[in-house]
């Protein structure tokens, strides 16, 4: 009899959880959702958010998001003892560190209150995104929140999205909107690619020509860069983010628990800097332009020359960068540095000899370590693309692997920690369909399904006992073929949504994800007035 009761209780429990899965659609999927038998919570304009002083900005953020989504204006009450207050509302309750996994939270909604428990900004912010998905996107005077208990935390500690603002630059308001996208999807890092061959987008007062010259190009390629003959629009294009813009964006991100990692890409991808200061190049007597075409690797000279001016320049610009950006991680690029130009230059060859460097790869390492040393003195950690592992770089650098699993394995074996951002399938500048009429992209095919199902910890690393070396993943958005923010939206949605669940949730199922995407995300993209790729159900599935 007892056994029977236990079985039926378990069965009821299963029923409750199963019901929760079918009626409550949250992306990324939480660790545990239970529908409770209690009464649902009703909130209206007499309801309040009760919050501890240290989370005031987050409480205001929640109030604002609630209002945007429903029209209901909740009150705000600061309290140090929210546990004890008897009233109708949302209670933000701080739990000690060991109560949750990092960035984790719980929500218990029943009767007259929603209790949100977490121990840090990210925990609360993540909880709010779940809460916002428990209520409809609809202007109304009273809101019903189902009686639920949710426990949730992420699978990976690094969950990032990148944005290239060089090939095309986007307004400050769009950068904020992009950060809101990250926040909603429970990412925690925005990787901001600020410099490249086609422009310098970071206000740099120590070298003003980086902005007066390096931030502007005379023309931009029309159509695909492999098309012949090449066509250009003949229009001056550019701009940069001022320090005031950057501070505004950093403050915006901080409230939302988003870390902003800036990237100044060296020693390759430096054509914009070279156009401003030709002394940085292996041919200082040449008049260089800011690149007007895409795909510079091995095609046009864009590498820094190893000389006194360059090394002082590197010290100064990274000092200016770290004075502004508080992130522990600082990205210094290191990708696609063509060795061709160093090989052809007598002064560079003399430098290699003088410093007893083995070859041009060792010179690349010399550059990376030169900057990494400065960063270390400022208590920062270097991040670089996987090419920096070509030489013997200090393994304290964090690697972003945009190549395949084999590259991840070799980096892990050397001792590096790795963020997985493989071109296939985490590059959102690749096509998301094989439809010949799809909007122009660089090449390739990364379907939403491929993004969702990609195994972030490669099997080979698991076998080698190196799974712990993968700290997370990131979607990259190179904007050669994204002139407008609407195109960025089109390229990232719904792939970014799929990536968010791949990074957050251990328990994945693509069919179930598609149902939730239809049920809650499409209306949300529309609420955000964001473009998205509509044929995600047509592509993938073996196509
Ligand atoms: C890269 O795609 N060159 C990082």
Characterize the structure shown.
By secondary structure, the protein is of the alpha/beta class. Helix content is 36%, strand content 18%. A hairpin with a 2-residue loop joins strand 6 and strand 7. The longest helix has 22 residues, at 2-23. The N and C termini lie far apart (53 Å). Residues 1-22 have low confidence and may be disordered. Bound molecules: acetamide (ACM). Acetamide (ACM) binds at residues 335-336, 385, 402.
Describe this structure in a few short sentences.
Helices cover 36% and strands 18% of the residues. Helix 8 (308-324) runs parallel beside helix 11.
- Quaternary structure state of the chains depicted: single chain
Percentage of helical residues? 25-40%
Overall 3D shape: globular
Bound molecules: acetamide
The neighbouring-strand order within the major sheet is 10-11-18-19-20-21-22-23
Share of residues in strands? 15-25%
- The overall strand count is 23
The chain-level structural class is alpha/beta
Distance between the termini: 53 Å
Helical run tally: 18
**CA-atom Rg in angstroms:** 25 Å
Mean pLDDT: 94
User: Which residue ranges are poorly predicted, with pLDDT under 50 across at least 5 consecutive positions?
Assistant: 1-22
Report the major sheet.
8 strands, parallel, barrel
